[in-house]
Structure formats: C-alpha cells, structure tokens
Predict the structure.
Amino acid sequence: NAGVTQTPKFQVLKTGQSMTLQCAQDMNHNSMYWYRQDPGMGLRLIYYSASEGTTDKGEVPNGYNVSRLNKREFSLRLESAAPSQTSVYFCASSLHRDSNQPQHFGDGTRLSIL
Amino acid sequence: QKEVEQDPGPLSVPEGAIVSLNCTYSNSAFQYFMWYRQYSRKGPELLMYTYSSGNKEDGRFTAQVDKSSKYISLFIRDSQPSDSATYLCAMSDGSGYSTLTFGKGTMLLVSP
C-alpha cells in the first residue's frame, strides 16, 4: 500500500529558482495538506485542500502556491525560492476536512535553498 | 503561551523501561487527541487516537487523556530500541473549521 507518495525526496535549489513538489494519495481521501518541519518549530501548516477544487491558507503560506490537480494529487510550488524555505516538506491526507480525522503523511521532501 | 506544549527531550532510557511522554494544552475545546511516531528521515505515522478523557491501550502503548488538567500522556511499556523515534502529540476540537494542532515532538532514545 503506497499511501501518500511525495516526489522528489531530495532537492537542492539556488535562490530565485522555482520548484514544484508533488504529492499523490491512493486512499480516496478528500482532504490534503502541506506542512513544513523545521528544527525547534515543529510541523507548520502551509496550505490545505478540504476537497477537490478548494484550497485554503494555513499558518505559513507566504512564498508558496498550491494546486489540487484532482482528488489524488496536491502540488506545492515555490515560485522564487529563498534560503528561509530550506526545510523538510510533508504532504498529508485525511478522509474528510473535519479536524477529528487523523492525517496520514508521506515521507517528505528535503529541500535545500542555497 | 503556545497552544500545545511538549518537552523536546531527548529522553534516554534503557531497554525494558516504562516511558512516559506528555503534552499540555491550553484550548479547552480540544477533544480529539492523537499520538504520532516519527522515525528519522520519515514522515509521522499515527500511533494512537483517542476521544475525550480516559485511557486507550494498544499492545505496549497506552494513551491517557485528562481534560480537566489539559494534559495527555503516552506510556510505552517494555520499551525497545525500535521505539527510538520522535513522538508528536496532535489534537483538535473536531470541527470543520479547524485543523490539527501539533506539539513539537519529544525525541526518545532507547538503549539496548
């Protein structure tokens, strides 16, 4: 069972470059999320998509855009990467938007911005 | 005051010890509580899920919620080196207008 799959697993970018992180889930979940995880900061929500066709900002949306391509796929785009965006990015999904639903995570994309 | 507080550790114990991991929170509306385990260079995986106050047991793991004290715990009995990981608590009010609130995680090291 694949669950939540993220690509790529690692990436190094130069400041100002653009990049799209891909996420796909095969659990027929309605809601999908993008987090970043930094040392000492924990998981911080960037954007989420409650259902296909909708997206909403989370705690730290600046510098990012998202696209819910279909029910399975949710991508995160950095238009002009900055060193402050160096982080580990996790995609997650849940059955429904309601916050009582547990979220299932991918294994992350480790992104370094030089 | 942060909404969810969790000691970052590391917490180091010998194999076979009983481990207690804890989170405190400030939002009295929280009623769904989860524990995630995160191995190094992996994503968080759901370990325990509880609703409201009380205990829930699953094998060597017991989750405990005390809503009156705004305090949750995860106990690990007979700890194993394979339990070495970061443990994150997460909680929510269950509404469709909020998302999960995560603690920052406690690193656990179990030595053989």
